[in-house]
Specification:
The protein is an alpha/beta fold. The chain is about 35% helix and about 15% strand. The chain folds into 2 domains: about 140 residues, Rossmann fold; about 290 residues, pyruvate-formate lyase- activating enzyme (Alpha-Beta Horseshoe). Helix 12 links the parallel strand 13 and strand 14.
C-alpha cells in the first residue's frame, strides 16, 4: 500500500511573515508516529511542506493530512485535489478535531483527538476494503503500547532540531484559550508514557541535543522526577516547556538541570491579574514571576517567555510594560501573541456568544492579527503594539541590557548569542537552509547551550 502523510505549510510560513528558520525547527513527529502503525512493506512518504515542495500530482492509495487552524485552507485544497482523482483522504489534527464537520466536507474520514486507537481501527478496515467513512472519535488515552515514531522517514538535514520528542500528552491546566484542550476532550487531559519507554527512545537519538515538545514537561512531578533521574549521566542537552507552578518545585528544577535542561518555555501570558483570571490561568501568580525566572537562572536554564496581548483587562500600556519587565529580568527569548479564540475552546465560545469575533478567516488566526473586538484597544492598536513589542525586545540595546542581568561572563555571552541568533541574523539563516547546513547549525546550538 502506498501512503502519503502530509503536513501542509502554515499560512504564515508562506506569506510576508516567513522566517525559514522558525519553520525548519522540528520534523512532523505526529505523522511519523502514525507511520509507525503501518506495515513495513508499505511504501510511505512523509511530506512537510515547510521544507519540501510538491505538486501533489501523485496517486497514492491513501493520503493523511494533519491540520492546524492556519493551514486549514491549504489542507482542504490539497485534500480536494486528491479526492477529485478518487484517492482516499483522511484528515486529523487540532483543527479537524475542533471543527470535524468542516473538515469532513474535504475528507473521506476525519479522526478526532490523538488517534491512539482510532487510526489502528481505520487501517484494519481500510486494508479489508471497508473504510470507516465519516467522523471517528478517539477516546483512548494511553501511551503504554505506543511504537517509536518512524524517524527513518524524516530527512534530518532539513531541521535544526531533528531530535524532537514527546513523552506525554496534554496538560493538567485548563486555560480557556488553549488550542490543545479540545484535542483531548472526552478523555483524560494529561497522561504520560512509561518512563522506561521514554528513556529507551531517548537512547535511540543520535547527538546530544533534544527538544521535548510536550505541552508541560513538568505536568506530573513523579513522572518528570523519574525521567530526569534516568537521563542523568546521558550527557544530553535539552529544552522543553512547563508552567510557572512547575518551576516553583525547586527540587524538580534541580533534577532537570542535572539531567541537562538548558532552556524552558514558560507561559507567563500576562502581567495583569484580571487577564489571567479571565482566561482561568489560575496557576500563574504574578508576584511569583521574578522568583520563577531567578530559579531558572540560578540553575543555568534560559527562559523562553510567552505573553498574550488583548486579554480582557489589557490597556494601551500592556505592551511596553510587558517588554520592560522581560528585559529587566534577563529573559533570553520571548514570543508575543494577540489573544486568539480557537474553535472548540471556551474562549471562542465566549467571543462568539458576545458577538466579538471580527472574522472567521482562519488564515488570520495566527496570533499576529486582531480577530476579536476588545473593550479598550482597537485592532490597529493591538497589531501595532504586537509588532512594537518584538522590535523593542529584540533590539540590540535590549539584548545587551538583558545579558547584563547574568552573574557570569559565560551566561552573558550565551544570552547575546542565543537571543541575537534567534531574531537578528535571518539573512544568514536563509543562506544556511538553502545550503542544507542545518546539521552544522545544530552542533553550534549545542555549544551555545553549554555556555552558562
Amino acid at each position: 500500500m502506498r501512503v502519503k502523510l502530509i503536513l501542509p505549510a502554515l499560512q504564515e510560513a508562506a506569506g510576508k511573515f516567513f522566517r525559514p528558520i522558525k519553520y525548519s525547527l522540528f520534523p512532523p513527529l505526529g505523522l511519523a508516529q502514525l507511520a509507525a502503525y503501518l506495515d513495513p512493506a508499505d511504501e510511505i512518504r512523509i511530506l512537510d511542506q515547510h521544507v519540501e515542495e510538491d505538486d501533489f500530482s501523485d496517486s497514492p492509495d491513501l493520503v493523511v493530512i494533519q491540520t492546524y487552524i492556519t493551514n486549514a485552507r491549504r489542507a482542504y485544497a490539497i485534500a480536494d485535489s486528491y479526492r477529485s482523482r478518487r484517492i482516499y483522504v483522511v484528515m486529523g489534527g487540532l483543527h479537524a478535531t475542533s471543527l470535524p464537520e468542516e473538515a469532513l466536507a474535504h475528507a473521506d474520514t476525519v479522526i478526532t483527538g490523538p488517534a491512539h486507537e482510532a487510526w489502528q481501527i481505520f487501517l484494519r478496515k481500510f486494508r479489508r476494503g471497508e473504510p470507516c467513512r465519516g467522523i471517528i472519535r478517539d477516546p483512548v488515552r494511553t501511551l503504554a503500547s505506543l511504537p517509536f515514531p518512524r524517524r527513518d522517514l524524516i530527512c534530518r538535514k532539513h531541521y535544526l532540531v531533528p531530535n524532537s520528542i514527546v513523552v506525554s500528552r496534554g496538560c493538567p491546566s485548563q486555560c480557556e484559550f488553549c488550542y490543545t484542550r479540545n484535542f483531548f476532550a472526552g478523555g483524560t487531559s494529561f497522561y504520560t508514557e512509561p518512563v522506561d519507554r521514554a528513556l529507551a527512545e531517548i537512547e535511540t537519538l543520535p547527538g546530544r541535543h533534544l527538544f521535548f515538545l510536550d505541552d508541560n514537561l513538568f505536568g506530573s512531578s513523579s513522572f518528570s522526577r523519574a525521567l530526569f533521574e534516568g537521563m542523568r549521566g546521558m550527557k544530553r542537552r535539552f529544552q522543553g516547556a512547563a508552567t510557572t507552578a512547575g518551576v516553583l518545585n525547586r527540587e524538580l528544577v534541580r533534577k532537570a538541570a542535572d539531567a541537562g535542561l538548558k532552556s524552558l518555555f514558560i507561559g507567563f501570558e500576562s502581567l495583569n491579574p484580571a487577564s489571567l483570571l479571565a482566561c482561568r490561568k489560575t496557576q500563574n501568580r504574578i508576584e511569583e514571576y521574578n522568583t520563577v525566572v531567578k530559579i531558572l537562572r540560578d540553575h543555568g536554564i534560559m527562559t523562553n517567555a510567552s505573553f498574550v496581548f488583548g486579554l480582557p483587562g489589557d490597556d494601551a500600556d500592556v505592551f511596553d510594560r510587558t517588554v520592560d519587565w522581560a528585559v529587566s529580568q534577563g529573559i533570553e527569548t520571548a514570543t508575543f501573541h494577540l489573544a486568539t479564540p480557537y474553535p472548540g475552546t471556551p474562549f471562542f465560545e465566549k467571543m462568539e456568544r458576545e458577538g466579538r469575533l471580527l472574522t472567521r478567516d482562519w488564515d488570520l488566526y495566527d496570533t499576529r492579527h486582531a480577530v476579536i473586538r476588545h473593550d479598550h484597544l482597537t485592532p490597529a492598536q493591538l497589531e501595532e503594539g504586537y509588532w512594537r513589542s518584538y522590535e523593542r525586545f529584540y533590539r540590540w540595546r535590549s539584548i545587551f541590557r538583558g545579558a547584563g542581568v547574568k552573574n557570569h561572563f559565560s551566561g552573558k555571552m550565551r544570552h547575546i548569542f542565543y537571543t541575537g541568533a534567534w531574531k537578528k541574523i535571518d539573512p544568514l539563516w536563509h543562506c544556511l537552509i538553502r545550503l542544507r547546513s542545518l546539521p552544522c547549525c545544530s552542533r553550534i546550538l549545542e555549544k551555545v547551550l553549554d555556555m552558562a
